[in-house]
Specification:
Blueprint (H helix, E strand, L loop, with lengths): L9 E5 L7 H11 L3 E5 L2 H6 L2 H8 L11 H15 L3 E6 L5 H4 L9 H24 L3 E11 L11 H25 L2 E7 L13 H11 L7 H12 L10 E4 L10 H11 L5
Parallel strand pairs: 1-2, 1-3, 3-4, 4-5, 5-6
Helix pairs in contact: 1-3, 1-9, 4-6, 6-7
């Protein structure tokens, strides 16, 4: 049930590819809560996805932008302000890409040019977005920025390879720019560390099903679905969280603070064929 939490607010939502995308769910929830926004994604991703369908559903214009291009981002932020006739209140950064993962490169054989591209697209793009917004003075006071992350920024996960470093850089940028924008405009910047989620990007990772099932068994509440993550993002865009900033917020059903679960003990016991005395 909608509560008009974002009534009167305008913003930018990046990264919606198809109905499985977290950004797609965020857009639907934001629209239901009274927000108006611009949708954006890289031109190539837009050709591969279904963003026109979402645009029509949410009455949201689309502004294509390569998140590694300062020119594109300047046009995105200036165009959004022109479209709405004023400054913006929120931004969702839901951007991530690793050619090394797509090509199945294990951590010891990374292509370093691709590695740099991973960092550029998945992390430095947040800095670029916020630098452009600062330069244009694009935010209203008490605005909110949310970037989607994953616990591999703090822990080692097989097959997540260079995206682990990208998420760590992303979270660091959110803290540093959160301090800066907080002082300048009372804008808050947070990252949400989400459970493994069956999105198009997530399922492209080798061994994803093992990631997903392990987290499901370890989390007291189970994996947080995309819809729940969208709800969390909406709360962070709203005025209910005005004093939450520079945080990496775990949205993972308790996975990040669980040592071992009963389900995992049972699974290991079954595999080992024994039990404790």
């Amino acid at each position: 049930m909608a509560n008009n939490l974002l009534a009167g607010k305008v913003g930018i939502i990046s990264g919606a590819l198809d109905e499985r995308s977290i950004a797609w769910k965020v857009a639907q929830k934001a629209y239901a809560e009274g927000a108006r926004f611009v949708l954006t994604n890289a031109p190539l991703a837009m050709r591969m996805g279904e963003i026109n369908k979402l645009s029509e559903e949410c009455e949201a214009p689309i502004v294509p932008a390569d998140a590694t291009s300062m020119d594109d981002l300047e046009k995105l932020f200036s165009g959004t302000q022109e479209h709405f006739g004023g400054k913006i209140d929120f931004v969702l950064h839901s951007i991530g890409m690793s050619t090394n993962i797509r090509k199945g490169k294990h951590y010891g054989e990374l292509n370093y040019e691709w590695f740099q591209k991973t960092l550029d697209v998945s992390a430095l793009s947040l800095h670029r977005m916020l630098a452009v917004a600062e330069k244009q003075d694009a935010f209203n006071e008490w605005g909110s920025v949310v970037a989607l992350s994953y616990i591999a920024a703090q822990r080692a996960f097989l097959d997540y390879t260079d995206m682990s470093q990208a998420k760590a850089v992303l979270e660091s940028i959110a803290r540093s720019y959160g301090q800066r924008l907080g002082k300048l405009k009372k804008v808050r910047v947070n990252t949400v560390s989400q459970s493994p989620t069956k999105t198009s990007a997530g399922t492209g990772i080798s061994g994803f099903n093992a990631f997903y099932e392990y987290a499901e068994r370890m989390s007291p509440l189970g994996n947080a679905p995309a819809e729940a993550c969208a709800d969390y993002c909406i709360s962070l865009f709203s005025d209910l969280t005005r004093f939450v900033t520079m945080q990496n917020l775990m949205h993972d059903g308790g996975f990040s603070t669980t040592g071992i679960s009963e389900e995992m003990v049972e699974a290991i016991t079954q595999v080992s064929g024994g039990s404790e005395a």
